[in-house]
Design goal:
The protein is mainly α. The protein has a domain of 131 residues. The protein has 17 helices and no strands. The N and C termini lie far apart (82 Å). Keywords: Cytoplasm, Cytoplasmic vesicle, ER-Golgi transport, Golgi apparatus, Membrane, Protein transport, Transport. It is found in: Cytoplasmic vesicle, COPI-coated vesicle membrane; Golgi apparatus membrane. This is Coatomer subunit epsilon.
Length: 300
C-alpha cells in the first residue's frame, strides 16, 4: 500500500502539535497532494495563538493566483481574512457561497475542508444552527473531521444525546481514527464517571508523544486530571503549558487555570481570550452579580 504523503503533517495538526505542523516545509506544485499539504500548514498557522493570518495567506497565494483557484484554498483564505478582522460579514457570505459551490465535488478533501472551515466561522459568529446544517449535509455526513467538529458543537450546546449519536456514526466510519478517539475523550470530559478515565488515557497518550506536550494538549490533560481529583497534577500541567510558546495566551490553558484558582488567570483569560466560552460565561455572571449587588447598596 502506498504511503500517505500527508500522514505526518495531518498527525501533527490533529494531535495539536500546531507549532511543529506550521513549521513544515512546503513546495507548491500542480500535484493535488501539494494543495492538501498547504491547506494543513496554512490551517496550522491559523490555529496558533495568536493566529498568523499573513503566513497562512502567503502559503496559499500560489494556489489562489489562477482563475480556477481551489475552493478549499479560497475557504481557508477567507477564514484568515475573517480572523484578521477584514470585512467579516463579507467573508461569512463568501463562505456560504463556497459551501453551495463545493457540494458534490469529486475531491473529498475539497468539500470537507470547505465545510469544516465555513462551520468554524459560523460557530464564531454564533450561527450554530447554520453550522450544524453545514456539517450534516453532503460529504459532511461521512467525513470524520466534520463529525468531530459537530460533536464539539453539540457538547457546547449540552446536547450530549445528539453528540453520542454522532459518535456512533463516526465509529462506524473509522473506529481506530484519532477523530473517534478524540470524540470519546470529549464526551468523557463532559459526562464524567467511567468515560472520564478513557479521556485521561487519550490525553496521556498524546502527552507522551515527542511533540505532544503542547499548550492545547496540556490544557486537556490538566482538565482530565482535575475532573479525576488530581489537583496538583492539573496545576503542574497548566504551569508547564503557560511556559510554552503562546501558552500564556491560550484560552483553554487560561480557562483551566482559572478553574484551578491560580492567581491572575481569570484576569488573563478576560484580556487575552475574551471570546472563550468560559470567559464569556464569567463576564455574564460578574455582570449579573454587580446588577444584583447594586440593589442592596448602602446609602450614606
Amino acid at each position: 500500500m502506498e504511503a500517505d504523503p500527508l500522514y505526518h503533517v495531518k498527525q501533527l495538526f490533529y494531535q495539536a502539535a500546531i507549532q511543529e505542523a506550521a513549521s513544515q516545509s512546503h513546495t507548491p506544485s500542480d500535484d493535488v497532494s501539494s494543495l492538501h499539504r498547504a491547506l494543513y500548514i496554512a490551517r496550522s498557522h491559523l490555529s496558533l495563538t495568536p493566529p498568523s493570518t499573513s503566513s497562512a495567506q502567503s502559503i496559499l497565494s500560489p494556489f489562489l493566483s489562477s482563475d480556477s483557484a481551489p475552493l478549499s484554498a479560497k475557504a481557508v483564505d477567507a477564514f484568515a481574512s475573517y480572523l484578521a478582522d477584514e470585512e467579516k460579514e463579507a467573508k461569512v457570505d463568501e463562505l456560504r457561497d463556497l459551501v453551495l459551490e463545493v457540494e458534490g465535488n469529486e475531491d473529498e478533501i475539497e468539500e470537507s475542508t470547505v465545510r469544516v472551515i465555513a462551520s468554524s466561522v459560523f460557530i464564531l459568529q454564533g450561527e450554530n444552527e447554520e453550522a450544524v446544517t453545514t456539517l450534516n449535509e453532503g460529504r459532511g455526513k461521512e467525513d470524520l473531521e466534520c463529525l468531530a467538529l459537530l460533536v464539539q458543537l453539540l457538547l457546547s450546546l449540552d446536547r450530549r444525546d445528539l453528540a453520542q449519536t454522532t459518535y456512533n456514526v463516526a465509529k462506524k466510519i473509522g473506529n481506530d481514527s484519532i477523530f473517534v478517539q478524540a470524540i470519546e475523550a470529549w464526551i468523557g470530559l463532559k459526562t464524567g464517571s467511567r468515560p472520564l478515565h478513557q479521556s485521561y488515557y487519550f490525553y496521556e497518550e498524546l502527552y507522551q508523544l515527542p511533540s505532544g506536550r503542547t499548550p492545547p494538549v496540556l490544557a486537556s490533560h490538566a482538565a482530565a486530571h482535575l475532573l479525576l481529583g488530581h489537583v496538583d497534577e492539573a496545576k503542574a500541567d497548566i504551569v508547564e503549558a503557560a511556559q510554552r510558546d503562546g501558552g500564556d495566551k491560550e484560552g483553554d490553558v487560561l480557562a483551566v487555570g482559572t478553574t484551578l484558582g491560580i492567581e491572575g488567570y481569570a484576569e488573563q483569560l478576560a484580556s487575552n481570550a475574551p471570546q472563550h466560552p468560559f470567559a464569556i460565561d464569567l463576564a455574564e455572571k460578574s455582570r449579573l452579580f454587580d446588577e444584583a449587588a447594586s440593589k442592596f447598596a448602602i446609602t450614606a
